Amino acid sequence: MPNSNESFTPLKDLCLHHRYADLGAVFGTPTAPTPLQKPHLIHVNTSVMALLGLDPAEAEHPDWAQLTTGEKLFAGSKPFAMKYTGHQFGGYNPDLGDGRALLLGEVEHGGKRWDLHLKGAGKTPYSRFGDGRAVLRSTIREYLAGEALTALGIRSTRALCIAGSEEPVAREKMETGAALIRVAQSHVRFGHFEYLFYTRQLEAQHQLVEFVCAQFLPEVANAPVQEQAEALLRFTVRRSAELAAGWQSVGFAHGVLNTDNMSIIGDTFDFGPYGFLDDYEPGFICNHSDHTGRYAFDAQPGVVLWNLNALAHAFSSLLDTEVLKDCLGQFQPLLIEAYSGLMRAKLGLALEDDGDQQLCADLLQLLADGRVDYSLFFRALSRYCGERPAEALEALVAPSQHEALHGWLGHYDQRLQKETRSAQERSRAMLATNPKFVLRNYLAQRVIDAAEAGDFQPLETLFTLLQSPFAEHPGFESWAAAPPESGKHLPISCSS
Ligand code: AMP
Ligand code: MG
Questions:
Q1: Where are the beta strands (DSSP E) in 262-338?
Q2: 331 and 207 share a domain?
Q3: Which of 39, 98, 128, 298 has its CA 20 to 30 A from that of 400?
Q4: Atom of ligand 1 nearest to the CA of 134
Q5: Tens digit of pLDDT for each residue in 101-158?
Q6: Which residue range forms the structural domain that includes residue 214?
């Protein structure tokens, strides 16, 4: 909602800046979108409209379908395919860039700047062998994931709107083309800096450091570029550590943590075959092309650090090795601090105690051994008030694990004695931390199957539930359930 002294911008008056495109030809290529044939609007995200200063009542505006598929452009748009490179599965690929997406421009609102990035808008100079398109399935997955993570308090790109079309697009099978407008405060990736470093375009690298610092680190904006680069690297290390901690705490696996999918501001970025854990499986691999488990759930913090090393290497043109090492050295303590805080909140522990890490580790071991549903367990624990037998928890754990569960609950009960909050207060806080509704793969698939058959109501339902995942939403219990055995480990294609 705008402040009383601030009014909504009518959709027709939304005017984009194009500061990034104006950086020059080194940074990408102006490219016109190729609109999808016979588009139809699927959904407009009124929460993101509000971020941009648009009136949510204009979600019904007739222009949305054309705006979402690139047939019509917002005033001031300067569609621009951004150039970047990156490390994919550990190997350097110099040929990347926006292959099917275009930065339309930036919106300024409420003291923030938001990039609008049209995904699925046709070929660009960086499309390589690709068709420049995105399919309905992957577009819906991206649309839902941005909302789910944001509502869980984890930084993520989001989407303003989503459209489908009748245009056939070939993946493993024939599908239909779709598009969305991705919204983020920045679309600069680790790979942008790697590109400028490996092509020795050092002036441009300075320019990009200054560009990002002007937006996010104004306190160093007038400092020498080395100082800006150090501040930026420290900022990215911190944001990335917080991001990894957030993913691990909610059970989110990204699936393709290549450096071109890492945001310089620590947003969850580029959604492919991601997955939220059902059963707690530390080694969960959601990407079926990831044969070595490089991007397994429990490998994420390590791989984020690997990616930060790749970024730091790209900064070696600006910073001494000792400074780079010092910046990277911040990662682990920041990760541990952030993760411990998040897990303490999940356990309802308002105070810090030396034994908390062990208590948490013991619980995770129990959940792993018993293949217990991660989110359901924490939701049920939120209602536990120290009285055993604790049927709701037992119901989630196989009988063979009940003894272990009670052993752990004994330690938990002892630990709760040290807390000063009442059991009711603790329960209230835990219910606002441990979600009832989680974007499980089988739910996403249910929504996609319906959408592919022309029914978008399930999408609307899941979207709404995920935007307030801690609320009870009476009548929607079936959306909070664990998957049937057949709904676990659905093969999620990494084609998109
Ligand atoms: P992703 O796996 O989505 O992170 O994409 C990796 C690279 O491939 C990026 O440069 C994308 O722009 C590009 N890309 C992915 N899919 C397509 C496509 N269908 N057409 C053109 N480029 C694509
Ligand atoms: Mg990508």
A1: 275-276
A2: yes
A3: 298
A4: 19
A5: 999 999 999 999 999 999 999 999 999 999 999 999 999 999 999 999 999 999 999 9
A6: 191-340
